[in-house]
Amino acid sequence: MEASRSIPPQIPGYTLIKRLGSGSEADVYLYQQLSPARQVAIKISKNTLDPRAAVRFRSEANFMGQISTHPYILSVYENGVTVNGRGYTVFEYAPGGNYKTFLEHGRLTADQMLTVGIDLASALFTAHRKGIIHRDIKPSNILINAHNMPMLADFGIAGTVYGRPGVGFTIAWAAPEVLAQGGGGNESSDIYSLGATLFAMLIGQSPYEYFYADVLGDSQRQVRAERLKSVILNNPLPKLNRSDVPAEVEWVLRKALSRAPEDRYYSALEFARDMQRVQQALYGRAVQTTVEGVPDYPQNMYAQTSTFDQSAPVAKQHARWVKPLAVTVAAAAAVVVMALAFVTVVMPNMDAASDNSKVQVQNHGAQNHAEDDPDSAITSGSVPSVQDLTGEYTADSKVRFTWVNPSPKDGDSYAWSLVGDSGTDPNAQGTTTESTSIEIDPADGAQTCVQVSLVRADRQMSENPMIACAAKP
């Protein structure tokens, strides 16, 4: 069995070149695609696909397919199943490696980091307004393409804001609330992880790993992981302590890394805007954002640098959560080509097997195998699901759904969308409401189905949405 799995499968239309990397669930190979003629990276499951693994492969391709036209998100071309039942996904090949490998011997200047940060924040905002939460942003998941551009990759544990497939995280890059509650994260925790990743591009490691190395020591991996988690939850964010990095740059990163989610940037676009303002103030020019339908630069581009005074407290943001996926889409913004030193390295391990401190909690009754650690899912019941969700057709040809909040709190809202058997795309954009009922037009077919999730004021969401259907009378 092991021997047969180690032999790269033949995939029609592709010729094997070499193996690139391996993770606990999948191997990555470099293939030559015959038509169109190009090199591609193909991620292939190590085992024949059971239902859970099949969902994982399909969801990764579906998630990335929705957003991979963005210039800073790795493109996915197709997926399928080999003749021996192993799933595969065909990706754009990024020959420059990843930033985890780059940081083993290199660092970015503050100006370079801001450029990379604006590009990645643009990509992340694009994902968020489609309802997609990455949940595992870190240097190994930022690839470098042939044009030296950063590419956000590995959506294998991503999920949507409605709690669909996959949750997970890596301790070193996870937000404190994710570590404390064991949840899958949300837009705010993605912003934290991006901030930690950009911080690392200046110092080489995640903030807490770098500055608390003596506390963590060289202990066994699981022990080190628990120590790191404790450090992040109980210790203040250390100062950057890099003399060539201006205070304004550190201020922006520290805001993204605020312990309380409400103190962070409200959106990845807002994060990008502050990086643009700092880059303009310090270096006399700023790269533009790359977000469809959004201006390239903020209206108040030339804000005084005193705005970023580190002595000033970060103002809490009390605005209600409006889903980024409600943003209107318009013309595509221009693509920014940034300059970085090209590094000749091996293709990144797209399954992140080499990262330390990845956490896994198996399903009830499952064995916790160390080799499965990098690809685990972590579930949480920290925000309860709504209860008593029911629907019925009304006399005026509408469908009314009602539900109960089992634990009401100030600022609660509800995210809902049409699903499944209603004949509507289950990945369709959804809507939020502060009411515990909705009245909608019926879907085509014999029934109309919706799913509803409870959303707290701090953007935490119930991991398991409730689903109910109303049958046409």
Automatic annotation (TrEMBL):
Renumbered residue ranges of the record's region Disordered: 356-388
Alphabetical list of SUPFAM superfamilies matching this protein: Protein kinase-like (PK-like)
Entry EC number(s): 2.7.11.1
Family annotation (SMART domains): S_TKc
Entry's transmembrane regions: 325-347
InterPro entries the record matches: Kinase-like_dom_sf, Prot_kinase_dom, Ser/Thr_kinase_AS
Gene3D superfamilies with a match to the protein in the record: Transferase(Phosphotransferase) domain 1
Keywords, ordered alphabetically: ATP-binding, Kinase, Membrane, Nucleotide-binding, Serine/threonine-protein kinase, Transferase, Transmembrane, Transmembrane helix
GO molecular function, one term: protein serine/threonine kinase activity
Class of this enzyme: transferase
Annotated Protein kinase domain residues: 14-282
Compositional bias annotation for Polar residues: 356-366, 377-388
Name used for this protein in its record: non-specific serine/threonine protein kinase
